Amino acid sequence: MNHLPVLAVTSGEPAGVGPDICLDLPAADLPCRCVVLGDKTLLQARAAALGKEVRICDYDAAQAPEAGVLEVLHIPLRVPCETGVLARENAAYVLSLLDRAYEGVQTGEFAAMVTAPLHKGIINDAGVPFSGHTEYLAEKSGAEQVVMMLAGGGLRVALVTTHLPLKDIAAAIDGALVESVATILAQDLSSKFGVENPNILVTGLNPHAGEGGHLGHEEIDVISPALARLRESGMNIHGPYPADTLFQPFMLQGADAVLAMYHDQGLPVLKYASFGKGVNITLGLPFVRTSVDHGTALALAGSGRADSGSLIVAVDTALTMAQHHARVS
Q1: pLDDT in tens, 110-119
Q2: pTM, whole model, 2 decimals?
Q3: In which residue ranges of the chain is CATH 3.40.718.10 found?
Q4: Domain 144-284 sits in which CATH superfamily?
Q5: What is the additional note (predicted)?
């Protein structure tokens, strides 16, 4: 197993389902070496509470583990964790998992990083301004811009804007933003997914893509001109299309990704098609990072009802992306 790619998997918020789903990694028999970053004692206690017979050992890069063993890079909790109950004192612990994974991808120790869910609110409650994994990793790595893309159910959907109130979206979208997001999407589809000359379909912002200006002018004034400039540069990009009709098999045939204008325009369709098996991907980073498509699910933690499907897909996707990325780097 020493020749296998090594992926870092952060176990996320300790009170949530992150530790639960990480315990399922050995049984997934993935073609890589998954190293779970987290508190070893917490993982052992959660396994015992769930009745899961999982052998857990300390990660040693110089020594190959036995098959079916969960390797853990032990990072201790700041305070004991009660399942399902958030603790501000452990916010620093959650961030330390990300810091160690980032350090590992920077040095080449890890080929990619996969993140289990964390709780943004409790980190902010601890006095640390924090808006999410994506922004935190972008700042650490110095990435100028990152793009959120979810994949699953045969779809890839990227977003021009992410976590904005609806009332702020139209003002946030300008031609430069559409062009930069589309460029990152096309570049990463090529470099991290091996898609040559990716075919990208773009939604409009307004109902019926503005209906010729009767339902808004963003398509005419902003989106269409931006797409025309991208096509002139050689990008294979088309639209804007009405979002309510774009997500149909005959429209998506041959498409490599959809670029949606805002969060709840593109993601409900994708999550309907793939929830529990989808993966959240951060494009624009100088390394590969994927995540699950769900939150901490505090009420499910320790219950045995948490589904590890999305984590397994996230690891598998990260592995594929890392292999493509290594070939072009």
Answers
A1: 999 999 999 9
A2: 0.92
A3: 1-143+286-329, 144-284
A4: Isopropylmalate Dehydrogenase (3.40.718.10)
A5: The active site is located at the dimer interface.
